[in-house]
């Protein structure tokens, strides 16, 4: 962070009549993301060096990395509601911002925001991090700098007129629309005119610029209007969010009052979810505004995660027998009936100078999959695939002959999401009626980093809903943010899709369960979405509290945790199937003989391998493992197959030293049945062709 300059040049002035003006500095609104199959809208308002963000949805940092958007410090974050599509990326951003030196954040949002912010204390516990929480209400203007904000708050659900007998367990949910206003822009100070009127340069110039009249030494009075051009009024944008049909009615009347009493709007940007925004009532409402107001729509955009989409498509060609997906990319040609313009990620609306006000769409870059495919081939794919074919001819060991069991890697990177690798998430199919790899069957999710739901959608395509509905359990290894921030959206979506099914068993360290419980108290869709089991009680030999369900749903005879050396409440897990296979997943840790002993003779060991060999010191310091250390645990455990994952983001593509390890190298979207694990180590050269040496990104530091 730059040091604060003591002599900060003044660009915002309070006029004699109390109104605010600023020198002409550019101000704009950038579209950071829109609604799509795996994203939600986020807007960045900039005036001079001041920045204000509306919503930090899940996947926010990753989309900034992908789009090479450099955000820098954010002065205030305004949240339209408390769901993952508004706040899901906030803890991750705050951790990154803290590491970059930012110590203060202002959060504005509806009632319940204080509770939400408090719920994150288990993983945002930095002593010197100051988070100012402002639960907004109507009327008050917020912000001390150039960007002033007024909130319009509405209840989402109809408030019962009679008091209900049963005390509600959560606060009623509210959503907020924001009016963002820049100061009026001062007219140009005409030095020539001032000179002609004999005004000496110095403080009198300043006074005139502020709109004051000045008296010269000869007693004559010069009015500001004699030397300063006319002031133009500031820009005013309404970011509109409506959560329910009922809320639309309430907002309509509030807005009417607001618009008659306040300045005129230049632009309305609709961040309302598509299902509400597409309703007849909403479109009618939008049409009721005068045509002088520019309307922008975020509802039918394309996914901002282009690299993930590309990787998934190319992987389906490189390894068609272990990956198929038919994820429906949002077609941007969807007929949009609202008046105005449909906006896209990285589009910009200029606010000031007013003469240039308007929306400029981003340059369209068409994905050329064929060209990309040719590049992959030029890197030697044919030879690599020959190796794979050869490996397939060797016999599958009997331990791996369990075709109903399979693994799908949803995120294989450590700490922060990057273009190719999302943060941790592994779907273990435990039981299935068919051996078809695209069949999600019934499964267990091992870790659930931010963005896991979106990755699952991309991995399972149109069978993703099926996968969520039959998700039997989720297991979380430890309370680090890269392993659990994806839970709220995933659990809420599971509940929405299967409201009558018993919720999945959530086995997690207590700080994670405490966070979710606190979050559910202010965000109703999270309530009753899981059956909690604390990892610390899942000991080998002890009866599992949900054993019957694990056996019935997932064919598991055993599921127990092993404490591992990483941080407080860090665990590995061992699962044993009644079908005869077993699997151990390390979570994050140093190599552990206890874990190796607990995993003894397992069918599959999935072990973290954050660092390449040679970085042993980093591994010790950060309490992770190197590739060789992970392989050592596999040998000690006598695992039939070892799978390496959780690679440091210092390796945007593939870390070195993975060639002849005999281990499977996990990469996002790779889906392997247990028999396929027999030849899967041979995929490494093919994966290298897929990624190339994509080192053009700085994995961290893109935000700052
Ligand atoms: Zn991790
Ligand atoms: Zn960790």
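Q: What amino acid sequence fits the structure above?
A:
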């Amino acid at each position: 962070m730059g040091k604060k300059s003591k002599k900060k040049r003044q660009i915002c002035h309070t006029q004699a009549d109390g109104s605010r003006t600023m020198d002409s500095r550019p101000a704009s609104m950038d579209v950071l993301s829109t609604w799509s199959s795996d994203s939600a809208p986020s807007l960045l308002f900039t005036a001079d060096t001041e920045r204000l963000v509306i919503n930090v949805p899940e996947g926010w940092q990753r989309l900034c990395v992908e789009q090479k958007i450099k955000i820098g410090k954010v002065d205030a974050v305004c949240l339209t509601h408390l769901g993952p599509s508004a706040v899901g990326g906030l803890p991750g951003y705050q951790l990154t911002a803290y590491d970059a030196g930012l110590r203060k954040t202002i959060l504005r949002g509806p009632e319940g925001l204080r509770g939400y912010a408090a719920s994150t204390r288990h993983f945002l516990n930095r002593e010197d991090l100051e988070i100012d929480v402002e639960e907004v209400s109507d009327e008050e203007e917020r912000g001390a700098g150039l960007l002033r904000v007024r909130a319009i708050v509405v209840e989402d659900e109809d408030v019962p007129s009679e008091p209900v007998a049963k005390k509600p367990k959560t606060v009623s949910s509210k959503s907020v629309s924001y009016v963002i206003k820049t100061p009026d822009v001062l007219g140009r100070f005409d030095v020539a005119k001032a000179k002609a009127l004999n005004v000496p340069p110095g403080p009198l110039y300043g006074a005139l610029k502020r709109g004051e009249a000045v008296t010269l030494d000869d007693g004559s009075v010069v009015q500001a209007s004699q030397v300063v051009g006319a002031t133009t009024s500031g820009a005013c944008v309404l970011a509109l969010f409506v959560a329910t049909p009922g809320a639309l009615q309430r907002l309509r009347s509030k807005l009417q009052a607001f618009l008659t009493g306040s300045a005129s709007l230049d632009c309305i940007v609709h961040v309302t979810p598509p299902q509400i925004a597409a309703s007849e009532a909403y479109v009618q409402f939008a049409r009721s505004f005068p045509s002088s107001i520019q309307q922008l729509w975020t509802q039918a955009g394309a996914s901002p995660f282009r690299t993930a989409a590309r990787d998934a498509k190319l992987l389906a060609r490189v390894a068609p027998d272990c990956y198929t997906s038919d994820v429906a990319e949002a077609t941007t040609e969807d007929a949009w009936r609202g008046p105005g313009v449909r906006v896209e990620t990285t589009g910009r609306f200029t606010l000031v100078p007013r003469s240039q006000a308007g929306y400029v769409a981003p340059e369209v870059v068409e994905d050329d999959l064929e060209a990309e495919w040719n590049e992959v081939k030029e890197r030697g794919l044919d030879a690599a695939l020959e190796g794979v074919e050869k490996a397939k001819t060797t016999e599958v060991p009997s331990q791996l002959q369990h075709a109903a069991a399979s693994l799908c890697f949803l995120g294989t990177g450590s700490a922060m999401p990057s273009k190719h690798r999302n943060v941790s998430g592994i779907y273990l199919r435990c039981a299935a009626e068919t051996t078809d790899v695209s069949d999600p069957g019934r499964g267990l999710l091992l870790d659930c980093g931010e963005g896991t739901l979106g990755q699952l959608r991309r991995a399972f395509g149109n069978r993703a809903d099926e996968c969520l509905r039959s998700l039997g359990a989720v297991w979380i290894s430890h309370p680090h943010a890269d392993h659990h921030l994806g839970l709220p959206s995933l659990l809420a979506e599971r509940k929405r899709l299967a409201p009558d099914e018993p919720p999945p068993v959530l086995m997690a360290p207590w700080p994670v369960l405490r966070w979710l419980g606190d979050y559910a108290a202010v965000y109703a869709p999270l309530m009753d979405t899981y059956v909690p089991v604390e990892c610390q009680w899942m000991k080998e030999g002890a009866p599992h509290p949900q054993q019957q369900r694990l056996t019935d749903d997932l064919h598991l005879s055993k599921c127990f945790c092993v404490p591992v050396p990483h941080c407080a409440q860090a665990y590995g897990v061992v699962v044993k199937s009644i079908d005869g296979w077993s699997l151990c997943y390390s979570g994050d840790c140093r190599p552990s003989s206890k874990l190796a002993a607990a995993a003894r003779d397992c069918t599959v060991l999935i072990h973290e391998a954050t660092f390449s060999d040679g970085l042993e010191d980093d591994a010790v310091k950060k309490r992770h493992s190197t590739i060789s250390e992970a392989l050592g645990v596999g040998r000690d455990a006598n695992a039939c197959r070892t799978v390496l994952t959780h690679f440091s983001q210092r390796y945007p593509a593939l870390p070195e030293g993975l060639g002849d390890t005999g281990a499977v190298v996990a990469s996002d979207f790779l889906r392997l049945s247990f028999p396929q694990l027999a030849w899967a180590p041979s995929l490494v050269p093919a994966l290298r062709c897929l990624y190339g040496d994509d080192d053009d990104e700085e994995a961290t530091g893109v935000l700052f």
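Q: And what stands out in the fold?
A: The CA atoms of residues 97 and 231 lie 37 Å apart.
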